[in-house]
Amino acid sequence: MSIDGLRELVQTLDKETMLNCQCVRLLTEEYLAYAGRDSPELVQAASICDVGKMYVSSRILQKESGLSLAEMQIVRLHPYMGWLTAKEYGVPDEVAQIVLFHHGRSPLHLQDIPMGSDEVLTKARMIYTFDAFHAMTSERCYRNAMEPRLAMEIMTEECHREMTFDGSVLDFLKRRYCL
Q1: Considering the domain boundaries, does residue 76 fall inside one?
Q2: What is the pLDDT of residue 62?
Q3: Which residue of 19, 32, 75, 172 sits 20 to 30 Å from the alpha carbon of 69, by its own alpha carbon?
Q4: Is the dihedral of CA 86, 88, 94, 100 positive or negative?
Q5: What is the DSSP string of 70-125?
Q6: What InterPro entries does the record point to (predicted)?
Q7: Is 156 a member of any domain?
Q8: pLDDT above 70 as % of the chain
Q9: Which of 88, 75, 82 is closest to 45 using CA atoms?
Q10: Would you say 164 and 125 are in contact if contact means Cβ atoms under 8 Å apart?
């Protein structure tokens, strides 16, 4: 199998996860067209970025109240589980690593986790930016959707504080959704 097999797997997950991956992929494709760039690896990673959520109980994913510390730790494992699954499905290493780092550096200190090149980490930060924007502007079972302008204000502030989001992607999203 590989990317196509994993996309099918994502479609078997809960509707919200499937829609999130599709929207992150579409935002990625729009950004690449806008920037005049081509990156099939980035698009592939976007389309399966949350495949690791198949290991998270639907009780947790669809919980209407706040998550406990233990539940949050389980959710935070989804990039690692997505990376392992991508490797198992024969996904190219760069794509699997983007999935692994799409929420930042892995909190796990295991020997089998790659360090991630600067290029992989930059692409992963791009996916994280699209993923966060879509999550913030989408209706969730535990909260209402934010207006794009408010989401951009929050993300821009966080980017200035911690450099978590990709600046070129934030600029694109501001132009696309807030002007």
Answers
A1: yes
A2: 80
A3: 19
A4: positive
A5: HHHHHHHTHHHHHHHHHHHTT--HHHHHHHHTBTBS-S---TTS----HHHHHHHH
A6: HD/PDEase_dom (IPR003607), HD_GYP_dom (IPR037522)
A7: no
A8: 90
A9: 82
A10: yes
- Domain count across the chain: 1
170 lies in a domain? Answer: no
Model confidence at 114, pLDDT cuts 50, 70, 90, reads: low
Q: Which of 55, 165, 44 is nearest to 103 (CA)?
A: 165
Where do we find the tokens 């951009």? 152
39 neighbors 93 (Cβ within 8 angstroms): no
DSSP letter at 7 equals: H
Count other Cβ atoms within 10 Å, centred on residue 52. 24
Longest Cα–Cα distance of the chain, Å, equals 46
Q: What is the CA radius of gyration of the chain?
A: 15
Compute the average pLDDT of residues 76-97.
Answer: 92
Which domain, by its residues, includes 76? 3-127
Question: How far is 98 from 93, CA to CA, in rounded Å?
Answer: 9
Question: Side chain identity at 161, as an amino acid letter?
Answer: R
91 in any annotated domain: yes
